[in-house]
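The following record pairs a protein chain with its ligand, iron/sulfur cluster.
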Amino acid sequence: MPSPTPTLTTLDVLERARRAGASLAGVASIAALYDSPSYGEHARSQRPSAFKSALVLALAHSESEPELDWWGVPGGTAGNRKLAEIARRLAGELRDAFGVDSHLLPYAIEKGGAYLKDAAVLAGLGIIGANNLLITPQFGPRVRTRALLLDIELPPASALDFAPCDACDRPCWRACPQGAFPAGSYSKSLCNVQMKTDEARAVSLVKYCRACELACPVGREQDCT
Ligand code: SF4
Ligand code: SF4
């Protein structure tokens, strides 16, 4: 008689995610993920139905490893490839040891991805800061994320009680070369101007602006510098 499949808890999954190389990990409810305000009707038809939980994985992107963020090689940035590899390793382990089926969401929304900042907030990894980025207590905004859908129900994380911007005088806004926070909120069009400038300036790899990210003091003590 085959031995029963062992039970898997959220703690087991998070511990295995960290052992696979994730800097942070948390569970979000799939329903909440696709109901998040950014989603609207966009790609709703591509929502996978067989899965019950979303595991959000984060990888720290220290200022001392800028190459993790450089674009221009197939497969996205080195950081993205590393995160995808962590997710694949973890997925293989969960399948082999627990029979759990999983699906790594593509990075791009138009290819069926999710809004990863929202997902990370729902997974209790951080909050959205005044610089419009995910801010984690451990690494500030210097993280990148991917999401792995799982076909098992895991209780989602609670919202984080964390408000670092309340007592901060906005070095992130002052660092922006485009003044992209003109009325106290993020202007995507002004930020896009900088993206185009960065692309035009690139020799082979594109090194996008991270000024509002690198100016943030949160999590500096744990930055892997
Ligand atoms: S620099 Fe300050 S205001 Fe800006 S995101 Fe970080 S904590 Fe918030
Ligand atoms: S990425 Fe650069 S241009 Fe865009 S908002 Fe941040 S600092 Fe400004």
